[in-house]
Amino acid sequence: MFQYYFLLGVRSLRRNPALTALMVLTLAVGVAASVATLTILHVMSGDPIPQKSSRLFVPLFDNAPTKGYKPGDEPNDNQLSYRDAVNLLNSKAGERRTIIYGVALSIEPARKDVGAFTAQGLALTGDFFNMVDAPFLHGQGWSPADDKAGADVIVINRKLSEQLYGDANPVGQRMTIGGFQYQIVGVLDTWTVVPRFHRIMGNDEGAFDEEDKIFIPFSNGIRHEFQHNGSTSCTDDRGPGFQAFLDSECTWLQGWVETRSAADRAELQSFMDSYAIEQRKLGRLMRAAPNKLYDVREWLDHMKVVGNDSKLSAWLAFGFLVLCLVNTIGLLLAKFSVRASEVGIRRALGASRREIFKQFLIETTVVGLVGGALGLLLAFGALALIAAQSKTLTVVAHMDWVMLLTTFAMAVGSAVLAGLLPTWRACQVTPALQLKSQ
Fold first, then answer.
1. Which Pfam families match (predicted)?
2. What are 359's strand-pairing partners?
3. Is residue 227 within 8 Å of residue 53, measured between CB atoms?
4. Which of the chain's termini has less CB crowding within 10 Å, N or C?
5. Nearest alpha carbon to residue 39 among 323, 378, 416, 389
6. What is the pLDDT of residue 406?
7. What number of CA atoms fall less than 13 Å from residue 252's CA on the CB side?
8. pLDDT tens-digit profile of 170-184?
9. Which residue has the higher pLDDT, 219 or 193?
10. Backbone angles phi and psi of 126, in degrees to 5
């Protein structure tokens, strides 16, 4: 019977083309608006590294002065000073550790057809690549010895490699960056992390910035005195020069620690608390504020990667979907009301209310399927328009299989929900009254 009722539903679409088109379009527009917004929210709030998100931590110490501080106040910044970052790096905390700061360095290609340009990247330690499971196309990261020596070695991303060397493997070649000769030791494969959890701070687009093109050893950036490309917060009067900047309490570095398991979090927190006590003996960290520790998901929440405006947009989109459902209910009532005589005759011939209910509900499901298909096309169009607005939106405005299935489920579910009242009303038709009116 399901197949028969389904075919009846398909045929019913042609009985009143104008009314059917209006129902389908109303449902499709509501689904498209809500799905497009939900898709962006889904991508923005996703777990960027689910296999490790409970084992990667951001440690924070409040090194600001005590003046004006009240217990319970939030730290003045979400980064580390050079002293705290280096002490963390040299400690035995966790299984792996890295510290990061942004750089923007000039590249002088050997190719004559490519002019000099500036590339954004990161100065960090070699453990970073294993910590975040970065995929390599060629070569590998640098060694701990290179970290210690501040060696002139570099990892570049695939896009930069193809720009400078085409399809050739550039590992072992040398390139001029920031006025210095660097040896390429690795090429990262295409690697789009969404959200870009490891370096939210210090760039214009935040968690949805494009891929970094260059990666150099942290100690190398310090040795060459490469300036920090990102946000810096200073609460003391530092002297002139790069060394004075390093010795200051300015916060400008991002720290990450990987533990063997999520259960080791307490041990890491204990290390941080012990470290803070030792530093207070040296006249630092005098606020005695709680030392913060965030795993990946907590860090994204703390940095408000998904802002209240994004959540509000999602609620407004669903409100629009509800409005479309109300209109669809009215259209279905109008469609089913003109078929009262048909229902009366079927009831007189022995059809039960259950069968009538099943028939009309399957018809609304057909409307939902057609509306879902159209809604999916409209959603793709809406996402394409959103992605065209900026590079940042291109990263988040794409639909995966989860959202694809959600679109159809939402369309069919909305149609069935909208059809419950009209279908119930159709089942209440009295056969005798309809037969008398014929």
1. FtsX, MacB_PCD
2. none
3. no
4. C
5. 378
6. 72
7. 23
8. 999 999 999 999 999
9. 219
10. -60, -25
| Amino acid, res. 35 | V
Classify strands 180-188 and 174-177 as parallel, antiparallel or unpaired.
Answer: antiparallel
| Spans of all domains in the chain | 2-45+307-436, 56-302
- pLDDT digits over 104-163, tens only? 999 999 888 888 999 999 999 999 999 999 999 999 999 999 999 999 999 999 999 999
**Among 197, 183, 176, 203, residue whose Cα is nearest residue 120:** 203
Report the mean per-residue pLDDT for the chain: 81
Give strand pairing partners of 257. Answer: 57, 97
Please, are residues 257 and 94 in contact by the beta-carbon 8 Å criterion? Answer: yes
Contacts made by residues 428-432, CB under 8 angstroms, sequence distance 24+: 429/340, 429/343, 429/344, 429/347, 430/344, 431/344, 431/345, 431/347, 431/348, 432/348
Nearest to 395 by CA among 25, 39, 2: 39
Whether 51 contacts 419, CB under 8 Å: no
Which CA distances in Å does 286 have to 59, 135, 292? 17, 42, 15
At residue 124's C-alpha, the angle toward residues 188 and 62, to 5°, is 140
How far from 111 is each of 107, 135, 375, CA to CA, in Å?
Answer: 11, 27, 49
The torsion defined by the Cα of 183, 202, 92 and 261, in degrees rounded to 10, comes to: -110
Nearest to 252 by CA among 289, 302, 218: 218
Q: Which residue intervals of 97-157 are DSSP H helices?
A: 127-131, 144-149
User: What per-residue confidence (pLDDT) applies to 221?
Assistant: 96
State the amino acid at position 435 in one-letter form: L
The token duo for 68 is: 């004006």
Helix (H), strand (E) counts: the chain: 16, 11
Omega prior to 144 cis, within 30 of 0:
no
Per DSSP, 224 falls in state T
The rounded distance, in Å, linking the Cα atoms of 285 and 289 is 8
24-53: pLDDT as tens digits: 788 778 877 777 777 777 677 778 899 999
Q: Confidence band (pLDDT; 50, 70, 90) for 433?
A: very low
SS3 157: strand
- Provide DSSP, 166-222: TTS--TT-EEEETTEEEEEEEEEPP---SS-GGG-TTSTTGGGPPPP-EEEEHHHHH
| Bridge-based pairing state of the strands 136-139 and 174-177 | unpaired
